[in-house]
Design goal:
Elements: H1 2-18, H2 31-39, H3 41-62, H4 67-81, H5 85-97, H6 103-111, H7 117-140, H8 149-164, H9 173-179, H10 187-200, H11 208-233, H12 238-263
Helix pairs in contact: 1-2, 3-4, 3-8, 4-7, 5-6, 5-7, 5-12, 7-12, 8-11, 8-12, 11-12
């Protein structure tokens, strides 16, 4: 009973930390609840993706908005629902990486609250490409179930990196606080998420190939991020997790765009 309550409170804690959804209750913050909050991230992603897919469907089917306008509102939703917290990590990571300094200097740059030129440029191109992928997909199809799984997989990748990644580059900050609560055995939870996904795929309307390619792409993104952050930063930070979420979502939108419009189109 106590564990079930901790899991529920961990989920609400994740909503408080990673979305702007108001949770009007005080939740004790301890190691167990933080652990369940982190392991709830894929569920948070599923919820974000589900509401996003509904927005795509309603905007295209029930309004006179153009595909480009629908895409802009959808892009705004994905940024707004998280309060831009992950984009902040993405811009800090871009600033640090493109400084072409050594690992220690890059970590110092990531601590700087100011946004530099490289961060602004990276954010501009990330948003522009994602907007393009969204707009063309909205114009090409009417079934948007695939959008449910893009935020789901991006957060599944982050959980996998926390459990079996290159380790934390700094033993401080929120990223370290979250990651240190997880152990190798928690991979069983991620495997459970994947099993639910593969069981659900045959029952979901749309093209199974899109969903399966997302899963394969996510495995590749996990392996790439694991190597990239070890070589470039000596490990992970809280900003790295935001960068992984935003970067992997953009790649998954691109994969879906290429598959739907240029392979199966």
């Amino acid at each position: 009973m106590r564990t079930a309550r901790q899991m529920t409170e961990g989920f609400f804690l994740a909503l408080q930390f990673f979305t702007i959804i108001p949770i009007h209750r005080e939740i004790p913050i301890d190691e167990k609840r933080i652990k369940f909050a982190v392991l709830s991230l894929p569920m948070i992603g599923f919820f974000i993706g589900l509401t996003g897919s509904l927005i795509m469907y309603m905007a295209k089917s029930w309004t006179p908005l153009s595909n480009w306008a629908c895409a802009l509102f959808l892009l705004f939703y994905f940024v707004a629902i998280t309060g831009g917290i992950h984009l902040d990590g993405f811009t800090d990571t871009a600033d640090a990486y493109f400084s072409f300094r050594d690992k220690e200097k890059r970590l110092k740059i990531m601590e700087d609250p100011r946004v530099g030129t490289f961060g602004v440029l990276a954010l501009l191109f990330l948003s522009a490409f994602r907007f393009l992928f969204m707009a063309e997909i909205i114009g090409a199809i009417d079934n948007f179930w695939f959008a449910v799984f893009i935020p789901f997989f991006s957060r599944l990748i982050v959980c996998a990196l926390m459990i079996d990644g290159p380790g934390m580059a700094k033993r401080e900050g929120l990223g370290y606080l979250f990651a240190k609560t997880l152990a190798k055995k928690d991979f069983a939870v991620l495997i459970g998420y994947l099993l639910c996904f593969f069981i659900a795929v045959p029952m979901i309307p749309g093209l199974p190939a899109v969903y399966l390619l997302m899963a394969l792409s996510s495995i590749f993104l996990y392996m790439y991020a694991r190597r990239f952050f070890l070589q470039s930063f000596g490990g992970l930070t809280g900003d790295s997790f935001g960068a992984v979420i935003e970067g992997s979502e953009t790649v998954l939108w691109m994969v879906t765009w290429l598959l739907l419009l240029y392979v199966m189109g």
